[in-house]
Structures are given as C-alpha cells and as structure tokens.
Write the structure tokens for this entry.
Amino acid sequence: MVDKLNIGVFASGRGSNFLAILQAIKQGRITNAEIALVISNKADAGALEIARSNNIPAAHLDQKQFTSEDEFTKALILILDEYCVNFIVLAGYLKKLSPAIIRRFRNRIVNIHPALLPAFGGKGMYGLRVHEAVIACGARISGASVHIVDEEYDHGPVVLQRTVEVAGDETPETLAQKVLNVEHGLYAEAIRLFAEGKVKVNGQSVTILS
Ligand code: GRF
C-alpha cells in the first residue's frame, strides 16, 4: 500500500497546472492524493485565488518577509509539516527551493518545465525565453518535461516528457500555448504515477512501473 500523497503546491503565477492537477483529483483520474496546501511568493498569484475558491489552504510566503534565508526555510518547513505535506509539486514557482527542503523531500519534489530537458533549461530559462531559444535554434520539436527537483535548476532526472511540433511560422507565444496544452495532461499523469507508487527514482535514473 502506497502512502497517500499529501501535496504541497508551490506556484508564482496563474496556476493553470495546479488547476489541472486539482481537477484530475476531483474527477478521480488521480486517486490516493490530495492538495493539502498552496504556497506562493506572490500575494496576487492566480494559484492562491484558485486555492481559496476551492477551500484549499493558501499561504503567501516570500523570503522578503524574513530576516534571512534560514528563517524563511524554517517557516516553510513548519507550514509543510503543519499540513502533513509529504510531496511537493512546483507549478510555475520561480524561486529556487533551499537545499534543506530538497534534502527533506529528496525525490519527492517535482517540477514541470516547458521544453525537452536537458535542453533549454537552467537558470533564467523560464517563460517566453524558453520558447524564444527553441525557435532561435531552429528546433523542429519541443515539448514539456516533468522532472525530479534537485539542487540545480531544471536538473533532476526526467519522469515524463511529451513533444509538440514547432511550426515554420511559430512565435514564442504560440509555442508557449501549444506546450501548455500538453503540460496539463502530462503533469496530472505524472502525479497519478507517483500516487500509485509507480515511479522509482535511483540517482539520475527513473523507472516507471507498469
Ligand atoms: C508553465 O509553463 C510551466 O511549464 C512553467 O511555468 C508555467 C506555469 O504556468 N514551469 P501555470 O502557472 O501553471 O499556468
């Protein structure tokens, strides 16, 4: 029997991936999981609004509210423990998690990135910049990647990927939308696999059990 995923979502923006996962749980496409808490570094994040309107605890926590990174990390760990979070989903969270949190949740933190990692990832690669870089190098395919979060940006092992074609007349905006359309299903699918205990992580290698 796999422990129920008690998910803490971290998001900085509109929260469409969070909403997709929430809907998948509500509709029973993901079982053995619930969203315990949503944390954002932005007070006006759409993700916090979505959480509140679904009666999910929502917290605005930003390092600027604390005297040091350590104090901020302590506050995050406290609230994650208070809500019994045992799995973290980064859904458009633009801050790096501290090493203490990554250690505590080793192999239990996932992120979604709007390109085919390990290409087009790393510090500064977020939002339209990713899609601009994909188009600028003439890639014919792009996509989305769900990966385990480790101490480096967009670096941990990949769990699932899905591709999209890059059209000849693609703009960063159209490509962002195309990729986002596949992100929602892909992220929900990845969470389902974790909730069913089908993802085994060993160092840089991920095995998906059937
Ligand atoms: C997505 O494109 C995701 O790949 C990236 O941040 C964006 C978040 O979008 N990590 P949303 O807030 O989930 O709508």
Remarks:
- The mean pLDDT is 97.
- The CA atoms of residues 18 and 125 lie 20 Å apart.
